[in-house]
Amino acid sequence: MIALLKRDLSLSIRAGGGFGLGLAFFLIVTILVPFGVGPQSDTLRLIAPGILWVGALLACLLSLDRIFALDYEDGSLDLLATAPIPLEAVVAMKALAHWVTTGLPLTLAAPVLAVLLNLQGAGFGWLVLSLLLGTPALSMIGAFGAALTVGLKRGGLLLSLLVLPLYVPTLIFGAESVRRGAQGMATTTPLLLLAGLTLASVALLPFAAAAAIRVNLR
Amino acid sequence: MELVVNNLSCARGGVPVLERVGFRLTAGQALMLRGPNGIGKTTLLRTLAGLQPALEGQISSPPESIAYAAHADGLKATLSVAENLLFWARIFDTNDITPALEGFDLVDLAGRQAQNLSAGQKRRLGLARLLVTGRPIWMLDEPTVSLDTASVALFGRAVAAHLKTGGAAVIATHIDLGFSAQSLDLTPFRAAPQKLNDFDEAFL
């Protein structure tokens, strides 16, 4: 299992691995929004938590179809399915690799980019915390969506449509906890719900995703 | 160690292609699957490897004993030959890739990225993966595609050595591999043309 994680990570940083894809997209969104909205710092401060979370979510979405599609195309997925490690573990490791290459860099870059959106000082810590809690759910839900669409040629569109509604709760509670944190209100409730979403998806979705892959490999 | 297949029917894309296939394979034996294109050799191998369920019939083999090699080699273009093999060795909980590198004449290529290999070299690497799985029953789907004569002989020797150490192999191929093996022509097992009346199948 560790071997699979290591392979996915080393593949992602080599040529064509798409390591910086999500990060670059996040950067572009957070740089462009202030230009689009205009220089009113009050408006920016108001929308910063939402924009940062939407940006992170879309950046995650961008690299989802690579999770299983590449392995499906070169036949590795067939071979992994006949290997001694359970398919559930394969899914969990691939989601983890996706998080390390997408969610984690986003979380680390978010406070820097939040300056561009004039996020209130109190919100920075909550932004990092909420992304740290929420992005694993994005990767895991995304891996489930990728598993559902693995056999389809150019399944990216269907994948986005399937996954977006599942992302909505994470987005709501993630952005809400940053907004409350920035305004000095209590953040316990949205953060707990966010953590609950992540834990539930990590606990349940590997099984659903593995079942979907088995059906798709037939 | 024994692979027994009894009364097996399998389908591809919801349409039955083979029915009532039966054979028995013990340690040290190889079975050549013969038959024209589209008869269902790949489908049979995928069913035996557990990648798709059988329509009916039984497959009995020791647990975790089957290594499957498909048309696609499952190689990562940006990993080197050694890294590709080492990955599969770790997945199958073995560690030594030297015999596999030597067995398929890949020692000189060990540091080269898989994307810079020729088609035949890629195939050899894909077949070398079988040696690091440490599993006794090999399921090989057209293993000699894009191999030259020397490499086919190399592959023949690898399979012969595997059989000698108590392994077994089911090989779908059209050519003669240069070792003695039983042969199974799949033509008589072709399924009668019929439609599955399982309405749900279209949605699963």
Automatic annotation (TrEMBL), chain A:
<feature type="transmembrane region" description="Helical">
    <location>
        <begin position="157"/>
        <end position="175"/>
    </location>
</feature>
<comment type="similarity">
    <text>Belongs to the CcmB/CycW/HelB family.</text>
</comment>
<feature type="transmembrane region" description="Helical">
    <location>
        <begin position="12"/>
        <end position="37"/>
    </location>
</feature>
<keyword id="KW-0997">Cell inner membrane</keyword>
<keyword id="KW-0201">Cytochrome c-type biogenesis</keyword>
<dbReference type="InterPro" id="IPR026031">
    <property type="entry name" value="Cyt_c_CcmB_bac"/>
</dbReference>
<dbReference type="Pfam" id="PF03379">
    <property type="entry name" value="CcmB"/>
</dbReference>
<feature type="transmembrane region" description="Helical">
    <location>
        <begin position="43"/>
        <end position="64"/>
    </location>
</feature>
<feature type="transmembrane region" description="Helical">
    <location>
        <begin position="123"/>
        <end position="150"/>
    </location>
</feature>
<dbReference type="GO" id="GO:0017004">
    <property type="term" value="P:cytochrome complex assembly"/>
</dbReference>
<keyword id="KW-0813">Transport</keyword>
<dbReference type="GO" id="GO:0005886">
    <property type="term" value="C:plasma membrane"/>
</dbReference>
<protein>
    <recommendedName>
        <fullName>Heme exporter protein B</fullName>
    </recommendedName>
</protein>
<dbReference type="InterPro" id="IPR003544">
    <property type="entry name" value="Cyt_c_biogenesis_CcmB"/>
</dbReference>
<feature type="transmembrane region" description="Helical">
    <location>
        <begin position="96"/>
        <end position="117"/>
    </location>
</feature>
<comment type="function">
    <text>Required for the export of heme to the periplasm for the biogenesis of c-type cytochromes.</text>
</comment>
<keyword id="KW-1133">Transmembrane helix</keyword>
<feature type="transmembrane region" description="Helical">
    <location>
        <begin position="191"/>
        <end position="213"/>
    </location>
</feature>
<keyword id="KW-0812">Transmembrane</keyword>
<keyword id="KW-1003">Cell membrane</keyword>
<dbReference type="GO" id="GO:1903607">
    <property type="term" value="P:cytochrome c biosynthetic process"/>
</dbReference>
<keyword id="KW-0472">Membrane</keyword>
Automatic annotation (TrEMBL), chain B:
<dbReference type="Pfam" id="PF00005">
    <property type="entry name" value="ABC_tran"/>
</dbReference>
<dbReference type="InterPro" id="IPR005895">
    <property type="entry name" value="ABC_transptr_haem_export_CcmA"/>
</dbReference>
<keyword id="KW-0067">ATP-binding</keyword>
<dbReference type="GO" id="GO:0016887">
    <property type="term" value="F:ATP hydrolysis activity"/>
</dbReference>
<keyword id="KW-0547">Nucleotide-binding</keyword>
<dbReference type="GO" id="GO:0022857">
    <property type="term" value="F:transmembrane transporter activity"/>
</dbReference>
<dbReference type="GO" id="GO:0017004">
    <property type="term" value="P:cytochrome complex assembly"/>
</dbReference>
<feature type="domain" description="ABC transporter">
    <location>
        <begin position="3"/>
        <end position="204"/>
    </location>
</feature>
<dbReference type="InterPro" id="IPR003439">
    <property type="entry name" value="ABC_transporter-like_ATP-bd"/>
</dbReference>
<keyword id="KW-0472">Membrane</keyword>
<dbReference type="InterPro" id="IPR017871">
    <property type="entry name" value="ABC_transporter-like_CS"/>
</dbReference>
<protein>
    <submittedName>
        <fullName>Heme exporter protein A</fullName>
    </submittedName>
</protein>
<dbReference type="InterPro" id="IPR003593">
    <property type="entry name" value="AAA+_ATPase"/>
</dbReference>
<keyword id="KW-0813">Transport</keyword>
<keyword id="KW-1278">Translocase</keyword>
<dbReference type="GO" id="GO:0005524">
    <property type="term" value="F:ATP binding"/>
</dbReference>
<keyword id="KW-0201">Cytochrome c-type biogenesis</keyword>
<dbReference type="InterPro" id="IPR027417">
    <property type="entry name" value="P-loop_NTPase"/>
</dbReference>
